[in-house]
From TrEMBL:
<dbReference type="InterPro" id="IPR002523">
    <property type="entry name" value="MgTranspt_CorA/ZnTranspt_ZntB"/>
</dbReference>
<keyword id="KW-1003">Cell membrane</keyword>
<keyword id="KW-1133">Transmembrane helix</keyword>
<dbReference type="InterPro" id="IPR045863">
    <property type="entry name" value="CorA_TM1_TM2"/>
</dbReference>
<keyword id="KW-0812">Transmembrane</keyword>
<keyword id="KW-0472">Membrane</keyword>
<feature type="transmembrane region" description="Helical">
    <location>
        <begin position="297"/>
        <end position="318"/>
    </location>
</feature>
<dbReference type="Pfam" id="PF01544">
    <property type="entry name" value="CorA"/>
</dbReference>
<comment type="similarity">
    <text>Belongs to the CorA metal ion transporter (MIT) (TC 1.A.35) family.</text>
</comment>
<protein>
    <submittedName>
        <fullName>Magnesium/cobalt transporter CorA</fullName>
    </submittedName>
</protein>
<keyword id="KW-0813">Transport</keyword>
<dbReference type="InterPro" id="IPR045861">
    <property type="entry name" value="CorA_cytoplasmic_dom"/>
</dbReference>
<feature type="transmembrane region" description="Helical">
    <location>
        <begin position="265"/>
        <end position="285"/>
    </location>
</feature>
Amino acid sequence: MFLAHPVGRPVHEILAADDAQDVAWLDLVDPTEDEIRLAEAVSGIALPRREALEEIESSSRHYRKGDVIYLSTPLVRMINEALTAYPVGIIVSERWFITLRYANYTAFETMSRDLAANDVDFALSDVPELLIHLLETVVNRLADILENAGHSLATISRTVFTSTRPRRHVRNADVLRQTLRELGASGDLTSSIRESLLGVDRIGMYLGDARYFEFRDTLQARLRILGRDVASLNDYVAQMTVKVQFLLDATLGFISIDQNDGMKLLTVVSFVGITPTLLAGIYGMNFKIMPELEWHYGYYYALCLMLASVLLPLFIFWRRGWFGDRSK
């Protein structure tokens, strides 16, 4: 899809060169080869293909050709609860602001609405302002995602360390396994956001080194603020990564405790079953001379002895807290 985002007017699709008149921002969303060629014809700028945007070297992500600056970064996107990072390309010249993306992003939609309503404190009338505003909108969106991820981690933490535990089989089957899945998703999310923040930070550093805003004091100040915001978000991501690892270790620790409890139960059952089995084996021997063989109460005596050999270890293990809940 090849879109135009005019200021003060709604977004519209570009089907011919005339549709791009009086527009600075050209937006290609999962474009076909024909749409890329049309954009090249409209702007007179050679546009990179997806393979070039997916390059990881800094020299391939940020470079200048004549008066045109080429920028690219991966941006995280959640589609059908699956986390994916897609490449985003930004091409800026004196006349054009061109974006190449392969997924719909909330930040781009927000900026499009800002342009259509012209609802900003500054004029989005030229390319440098469009560029810095897009970077700010992307960082704000990543901050919102991090904030939601932080709330999710807080919920997971309460689940892991809650004092009220559900029944053992329910906790083993559902809570702990679900907690591991959520922690894995949180770890993937923080890693992807870190990658996106790193890409935005590198774009900001490249623009600063290239002195792209050299004669625009206001935009220079906003770029510095953007850098500080990215740095603070990176610190937050690092803290979340540590918390994810801590909760993962704690969850695995609880799983180990449950496994140990299961082994204790098996030990109790095995020990309790050994003694009566031994007694039954002794009194089941067919020796001619056995003191209890002719005893009238021998049968009841053996049963009582076996019952006592079961109850006494159970009582001892219960006193030691190996099973049951003595607080009730």
